[in-house]
């Protein structure tokens, strides 16, 4: 006989190693939603209502985040959800996820905007990366900078109060460890969720940051959500994969280590901000007018190289 749910005795579909619980489909979904809803309310004060953008790629995490936030806000007249999807221009990969994102927006009745690198910057990502001086062997860095620039721009255009991403616990633990290993404390203190609004930047929230990648996938599966499962063809070039493997091995040997990494960061976040936060106000990029620390923002520095 297989394992039984720790809460009701029905057949279990998963075993949560770090908590020691076996859960059936119904109680797993309750377990998952409780964690996400609690984290959302911890990050978002809905007192006066909020218009929240959700960055949706079509992958499991972003589709789950979209559904969770829609569920929370659907009965509120003072709040709304707006979908933002970026088409980077990755042949054979992005078109499939765009279709899924578009269909999910329509199914939920959510307004959305799909913007592309080619329309906004003149070239799809695939073409940009043909120039070695642009990516320097790090395509994810180029893509990340331009995607963040576009998401912030679209969020401002639509007067959104905040922007939610589908970053899960695995993503969060990897980012914390990467910044720690690089001794990049200034980047560490800029991690979402953002509790302060900086002029020109739409604050980000991460309602899935306390659920694992496996839990997110299982929730999408048990909820019969259509998601894009293909991995980005440029993912192999990212250093993040090394940290994912390291943390995965640690989690196998010590269940709960991902939570421990996040918990440790939470305990030192405020002292780090006191020591490393730059009190200077952000300037404006001379090219695009978006917030920037230097004369040009990073996106415009990349585009300058592309344009020659």
Global Rg: 20 Å
Helicity level, as a percent range? 40-55%
Main beta-sheet strand count, sense and barrel state: 5 strands, parallel
Tally of distinct domains: 1
Strand order of the largest sheet: 5-4-3-6-7
* Mean pLDDT across residues: 94
Structural class: alpha/beta
CATH architecture: 3-Layer(aba) Sandwich
Q: How would you explain this protein's 3D organization?
A:
With 308 residues, the protein is an alpha/beta fold. The protein has a single domain, classed as Rossmann fold (3-Layer(aba) Sandwich). 49% of the residues lie in helices and 11% in strands. The chain has 13 helices and nine strands. The strands form three sheets. It has a five-stranded parallel sheet, with helices on both faces. α1 packs across α10, α2 packs across α10 and α8 packs across α11. The longest helix has 20 residues. The radius of gyration is 20 Å and the shape is globular. The termini are far apart.
Defining traits:
two-stranded antiparallel ribbon, Rossmann fold, 308 residues, single chain, 49% helix, alpha/beta
List the helices and strands and how they pair.
Blueprint: E1 14-16, E2 21-23, H1 25-43, E3 51-55, H2 60-73, E4 80-87, H3 94-108, E5 111-116, H4 117-121, H5 125-128, H6 132-135, H7 139-157, E6 162-164, H8 169-181, H9 185-188, E7 204-205, H10 213-222, H11 240-253, H12 257-276, E8 283-284, E9 291-292, H13 298-307
Parallel strand pairs: 3-4, 3-6, 4-5, 6-7
Antiparallel strand pairs: 1-2, 8-9
Helix pairs in contact: 1-10, 2-10, 8-11, 8-12
